[in-house]
Write a structure and sequence with these properties.
By secondary structure, the protein is α+β, with helices and mostly antiparallel strands. The chain has two domains: 224 residues, 3-Layer(aba) Sandwich (Rossmann fold); 88 residues, OB fold (Dihydrolipoamide Acetyltransferase, E2P), CATH 2.40.50.140. It is built from eight helices and 18 strands. The strands form four sheets. Strands 6-7-8-3-9-10 form a six-stranded mixed β-sheet, with helices on both faces. The chain has a five-stranded antiparallel β-sheet with strand order 13-17-14-15-16, with no helix packed on it. A four-stranded antiparallel β-sheet has the order 2-1-4-5, with helices on one face. Strand 14 and strand 15 form a beta hairpin. Helix 2 packs parallel to helix 4. The structure holds adenosine-5'-triphosphate. Adenosine-5'-triphosphate (ATP) binds next to helix 1.
């Protein structure tokens, strides 16, 4: 079991309110990702769940028990950090077993759990190596393995992939997704990378400035963002925001994603000029300066040849256009 409930968690550092009342329910087995811009309070919230930081007020309940006075080691959680935090003088095997030895687990049980974890994470060839003899991706797998052997109620990941290069990030992301499926464990994962959030999460919690902006399944946030912040944060390239006044609309802002605009050389809604084309192979990102709607990013599937300076028309899909009020909330 590994359910988590967070009730009205607030945290201030001196006069700075870093978390302003967070409520959240995580059910057993769920993969929940905290995402948000730098400094929004993601790591602080994770550290409060782990017990590494005290909240100023509010409650954390794990499997229904208030863990306010329970030290980190007794909360049934295992945490994986960005920096791996491995012991440099211990072998991979001993890095993974140390916590269990300290907890007094019998040797055969330790061997069994290390065996399972190292096979799951393809670490068998490296068990006798020290961290310095491993690549960054392998080190992070050891750190994850060390968490797995503890069989925790809750896994907490604090930006575990951010020190890896792009290719390794994709591989390790896949491994974490598979691990979640195999263990059916509850995982809480912090990242500022919205692609990681979209691909891993059952449920995404979008944080901004110490508050939750929206909680929902990845496609729910993509299709039905509650407000301008979430609309702009989820999706890449970012949603285009156009001043409603420019378009003669009552809404303060009109939003349309780059992939929901089509282009044509001869006719369309907004006449403009190609500023730049980015050829990504599978898609093309076009930057178009339009008279009516200003600068737009348009994502076209496939190759699209467009010379800077060429005249072009952009047409938004009216069914995929969002309207936001002065308070930033979506108008339905
Ligand atoms: N010990 C501390 N003392 C004072 N301020 C702190 C402390 N720890 C964090 N903060 C501040 O709290 C805010 C939230 O920090 P936190 O690390 O939770 O953000 P984050 O969303 O995880 O950011 P990042 O993505 O950059 O890691 C920041 O403004 C940070 O400067």
């Amino acid at each position: 079991m590994g359910s988590l409930k967070i009730e009205n968690i607030k945290k201030s550092f001196g006069s700075v309110d870093v978390l302003k009342g967070i409520d959240l329910d995580v059910t057993d087995g769920e993969f929940v990702v905290f995402v948000g811009p730098s400094g929004c309070g993601k790591s602080t919230l994770l550290r409060i769940i782990a017990g590494l930081e005290d909240s100023t007020s509010g409650k954390v309940l794990i499997d229904g028990d208030n863990v306010g006075n329970v030290p980190p080691a007794k909360r049934g959680i295992a945490m994986v950090f960005q920096t791996y935090a491995l012991y440099p003088h211990l072998t991979v095997k001993n890095n993974m077993s140390l916590g269990l030895k300290q907890a007094g687990e019998p040797a055969d049980e330790i061997a069994r759990r290390v065996g399972i974890a190292s096979s799951m994470l393809s670490l068998e060839p490296y068990l006798e190596r020290r961290p310095a003899e491993l690549s960054g991706g392998q080190r992070q797998r050891v750190a994850i393995g060390r968490a797995v052997v503890r069989e925790p109620k809750l896994f907490l990941f604090d930006e575990p992939l951010s020190n890896l290069d792009a290719a390794l990030r994709v591989n390790t992301r896949l491994e974490i997704a598979q691990l979640h499926r195999r263990l059916a464990a509850t995982m809480i994962y912090v990242t500022h990378d919205q692609v990681e959030a979209m691909t891993l999460a059952d449920k995404i919690v979008v944080l901004n400035n110490g508050q939750i902006e929206q909680v929902g399944a990845p496609m729910e946030l993509y299709n039905s963002p509650a407000n301008e912040f979430v609309a702009g944060f989820i999706g890449s390239p970012k949603m285009n925001f156009i001043d409603g006044g420019r378009l003669g609309e009552a809404a303060k802002t009109i939003g349309v994603r780059p992939e929901h605009i089509t282009v044509d050389r001869n006719a369309g809604t907004w006449k403009g000029t190609v500023i730049h084309a980015e050829h990504l192979g599978a898609d093309t990102n076009l930057y178009i300066d339009t008279e009516k709607a200003g600068l737009l990013t348009v994502r076209i599937f496939g190759v699209y040849d467009a010379e800077p300076g060429a005249a072009i028309y952009a047409t938004p899909d009216p069914a995929r256009t969002y309207r936001f009020g002065a308070d930033g909330r979506v108008i339905r």
